[in-house]
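# step 3/5: fold
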Amino acid sequence: MVEQEQNYLTPEMLSQIGKEGEETIWPEPLDKSSLRRFIQATRDDNPLYYDEEYAKSTKYGSIIAPPFYFHRSFPSPLGVVEDAEKEEMRHRGLVDTPGFAKQVNAGSEIEWFGQIRIGDTLTGKTVVSNIEQKEGKSGPMIIITSDRIIKNQDGKLIAIVTSKSLRRQAEGTSLF
């Protein structure tokens, strides 16, 4: 006899699919000083990121930021769960997963549409695109997929970041 897998996905969890988090805005426009500190910290010596004369001679026509620069300062993409089961889960977004308090970043994919330039201010809005349950070696897990849409101050699409968050049961916890 095959044991049937217990379904931990509640209607409340599934109702979050398609929900958007609040739009978040970069704290300040990209400036040369911030960009310089970032490329020094990451040891990225591509002249496209700091040499104006070189950058002007490229297809970009001006200095641009490295691809992962936008990750530096966005606040939590999905807002705060005010009544989350555990305090440490409050910052993890719209989807509360009672009984699944351990969270692991399960990876991200980025689709690029534009460049970040000096003076740009970015906005981001995240949408929960899928919630699923899978069985792992150590038990059930919930996988939340979300898409963060990044635009500049002119509304031009810069990137879509698809991220997965894997949540596992904490030892000694159960949904029921």
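# step 4/5: annotate
Residues 13 and 95 are 6 Å apart (CA to CA).
# step 5/5: archive (pending)
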